[in-house]
Amino acid sequence: MMEVKVTKTTNPKVKPDPATVPFGVAFTDHMFMMDYDSENGWQNPRIVPFGDISLNPGALVFHYGAEVFEGLKAYRTPNGEVQMFRPAENFKRMNNSAERLCLPQFDVEDAVEYLRKFVEVEKDWVPDQYGTSLYLRPFLFGTDADLALHGISHATFMVIACVVGSYYKSGLAPVDMLIEMDDVRAVRGGTGYAKCGGNYAAATRAGEKAAKKGYSQVVWVDGVERKYVEEGGGMNLMFVWDGKLVTPELNGSILPGVTRKSILELARSWGMETVERKITVELMEGCKNGTVQEAFMCGTAAVVTPIGGFVRGEEKVVVNHNKIGEMTQKVYDELTGVQWGLKEDKFGWTVKVD
Fold this sequence. Notes:
The protein is α+β, with helices and mostly antiparallel strands.
């Protein structure tokens, strides 16, 4: 690991109220940066005041979407310590995403230490109210000023952070989901398993159409047979189905979520059977006959979002009487309890910052 040069801001910002600030807009005072070129590898890790960056208009990121990113959080425990949740898992996934887009990879342990150093500099920004946190956004992009299609020789890795409260204003209130049958988020062989901006940009149109109809998110189906449900908006899907925890299997078009992985590990530790398989629109029938007892989305930003119903065409079904289920609540309580230091971390998931 290289030494990190720290340049502190001379104009610190006023910290916002984390309970009321909109998600993703209250950025901290500093950002982390590190450069790459194919001859010298990674170099010049530094923490500098948050601000605009300068890039050549020909940079590959602008023209060919040569970019990947991650999302994780830092939390303040009741005793005032700051900790992160499973950062190594995020950087392992980031390397997988980078490999898919031909971006340079990095040493995971070094990346965790760079992130730890960055959060240590910004630790006063980590709020202490339950349900609030410091959202961390590592991202990596190609900077070659060359419009030819080729491998990437120059890149920049950055981390920015913002104070956040609940992702959804409704908190843990169940949401209705529209099963999207026209647009496709990703296909096997594409970039579905990579966390890259293009996946999310391509998902925006369907999300906006759903919102206009009064639905919180869309359920994506596979892009080949158009019958297997895959993700919910930008999150993974999970179901309590006949007493088992069931989730769509990772097939190359589904993002391998860190929260998804954590919930599966939790459920197994509780003695609950977990199943990863293809799930067709049989889901609708399962909701009607009661074999689907609970449904929820999971991801870093919201942790868990209960689903109250699904809509496909003119057909609508309700899940668990449009109430949060017992398992959904238990998963949320356990995960957030570990993240905020309220419960014992039996898995060694948290990483102390200071």
